[in-house]
Amino acid sequence: MGLSDRLKEAAKKAEEAASEHRDQMRQAVVKAGEVADQRTGGKYREQIQKAAAKADTVVERIAGTSAEDSSAEAPADGSAPGKPAPEQPGDAAANA
Question: What angle, 0 to 180 degrees and rounded to 10, lies between the N-to-C axes of helices 22-39 and 45-63?
């Protein structure tokens, strides 16, 4: 078995694992984003959200589906699916 065959086999195993554990991987991405946002006091919220969206796209790509096809896609505001978006500084003033 050559190197090329081994790499193809490894890629196939990664795809299968990502498909089987997609939800857990997405939850980990969301949780990591929440923790990072909390620890930075929201200072880097936008960058964290962008990184989380890219990580979610990678998970979906590895799993063999597109992020657009997923009904549980993480919202663009960085909140977890099904959860309200975290209140941003100045939101209360904008709503008043």
Answer: 170
Q: For residue 46, is it within any domain? A: yes
Q: Which of 74, 19, 67 is nearest to 48 (CA)?
A: 74
Match 């990591």 to its residue by tokens.
32
Distance set, CA 33 to CA 5, 7, 12, 28, 60 (Å): 36, 31, 28, 8, 17
pTM value surpassing 0.70:
no
Distance, in Å, from the CA atom of 19 to the CA atom of 61, rounded to the nearest integer, reads 10
Q: What residues make up the domain containing 37?
A: 26-64
Q: Indicate the number of domains in the chain.
A: 1
Helix axes 45-63, 3-20, angle to 10 degrees: 110
Q: What percent of the chain has pLDDT over 90?
A: 41
